[in-house]
Amino acid sequence: MSKGIIAIPIAQGVEDLEYHVPRMRLEEEGYTVLSAGLTKAEVIGKNGLIITVDVLISDLNADQLCGIILAGGWAPDKLRRYPEVINLIKKINQQNKVIGIICHGGSMAISADILKGKKATGSLGIKDDLVNAGATWVDESAFIEGNLVWGRVVADIPNFCAALVKALNKA
Fold first, then answer.
1. How far apart are CA 143 and CA 163, in angstroms?
2. Phi and psi angles of residue 96, each rounded to the nearest 5 degrees, phi first
3. What is the pLDDT of residue 170?
4. From the DSSP assignment, how many helices (H) and strands (E) are in the chain?
5. CA nearest 87: which of 107, 113, 66, 55?
6. Which residues lie below 8 Å from residue 59, measured CB to CB, with a gap of 6+?
7. Domain locations in the chain?
8. What CATH number has the domain spanning 5-170?
9. Cα gap 161→100, rounded to integer Å
10. What is the pTM of this model?
11. Which residues are catalytic?
12. Binned average pLDDT, 10 residues per bin, the chain of 171 residues
């Protein structure tokens, strides 16, 4: 029996490790993890791995999810342009459900306007964007800030996954 459903919005160029490792770790914990795409077309990760889309982002309902993971790579810059992605993130945040954010995934959280007054980390490539969105930048591997679970970069995936599991099992 599943502990709950977690969605990972994906698009071409998602960082393969930031998608696959948390997905496998959370499935190991007993969660159902759905790859959510803008279309049903297969997604090719930044490093060439192919991902099958389980569900359309537009078909997801925040009420049925226990969390969402915002993986990095080049995909966040594409995904943040779609209202259905941003609205889903906003609704999950309003429900105080777990939002895992790693590397460039923070750009989707910026577009969802959920970072004012929060600690944040991620790729140095979006540090200024996080600060300009009202977050306080911290250079830490991974941490929990309210309902947000942060991971800095690929090298920090083990710590990010540990924090995700801790946050989800508390929820």
1. 6
2. 60, 35
3. 87
4. 6, 11
5. 113
6. none
7. 5-170
8. 3.40.50.880
9. 9
10. 0.97
11. 104
12. 94 98 97 98 96 98 98 97 98 98 98 98 97 97 98 98 96 66
Q: Which pLDDT does position 23 carry in this prediction?
A: 98
28 exposure class (CB count in 10 Å sphere: 0-12, 13-18, 19+): exposed
Closest CA to 101 of 37, 22, 45: 22
Dihedral of the alpha carbons of 64, 70, 76, 79, in degrees to the nearest 10: 0
pLDDT at 14: 98
The DSSP call for residue 41 is S
Residue-level pLDDT at 7: 98
Q: Kindly provide the residue ranges of all beta strands, DSSP E only, lying in the chain, ordered along the sequence.
A: 5-10, 32-37, 43-44, 50-51, 55-56, 67-70, 98-102, 119-120, 136-137, 142-145, 148-151
Cα–Cα distance between 70 and 8 in angstroms, integer?
6
CA–CA separation, 64 and 31 (whole Å): 13
From the list 77, 94, 93, 63, the residue with the least C-alpha distance to 9 is 77
Q: How is residue 154 annotated by DSSP?
A: G
- Predicted pLDDT of residue 164: 98
pLDDT given for residue 1 in this prediction: 81
C-alpha dihedral sign at 143, 94, 115, 157: positive
